[in-house]
Amino acid sequence: MEPLLLTMPEGAACARGLKRLLGWELGMVALHRFPDGETCPSLPCDVAGRDVVLVGALHDPDARLVALYLSASIARELGALSVGLVLPYLPYMRQDARFAPGQGITSVHFARLLSACCDWLVTVDPHLHRHSALDQLYAVPTRVVHAAPAIAAWIAEQVERPLVIGPDGESAQWAGQVAALAGCPVTVLHKTRGGDREVTVSAVGAQWAGHTPVLVDDIASTAGTMIAATGQLAAAGMRAPVCIAVHALFAPGAAAALASAGAARVVSCNTVSHASNGIDLAPGLACAVREMLAQGRR
Asked: Distances in Å between the alpha carbon of 276 and those of 10, 36, 189, 221, 265?
């Protein structure tokens, strides 16, 4: 039997993109909420003997994780041949060290939880810093879809004389890859963070006058880094930047604040549903899903 696509309600947009490319049956998990706040998922069709691909959205993880975990576990309970998770945005990656007394490395504990309910995992550009690969965290096979090729293609088509700018040192390798694929120059700023919402960045060199700055970052939450960089670009007499994020986690008012700061355009990949979505990663996700299923059948 062909694999079955199941989606959590919040993952429906991504699941429709996968169905368009893969052609498999698609069903949505129904979530019943009891008066005490507990969740009872119901699968829409028989999963016995089928490979199940469960699509979720975890950009608000604490509110959605239990339903996802239970849905994957129920698919296994009801006889699914395998259960894979497609989570375009993978949360709980920032806390990859103990930054203060009493804290823990929550990325490790979160990975243990997800690994217990699935056979494989596909995601997009997780926030890897002190961990060099997801396999260091997850006990199941993982596949990372890289957004750089799709972002580079969009830049090459949409932006005149682009200059790719990484907002901090952590972004240097990634920004360089995007620029190389887009066939344009790249520079990286230095970022100093004073708190969750306090960020300063270094100025860009005057030699880039005449180029269109393209700020690229993996995660946009408060947008503080991009707002600070946009201010520095304006002070240097640069054109208003195009701001691109892989994961548009924008906190309330953050996207509007970025536009007000002078961004010419704010664009994101469709890993998290947002009005700024303009770069489609469904082809890469579909390819990764096929590869994971083929690997499991060997």
From this structure: 17, 36, 24, 13, 9
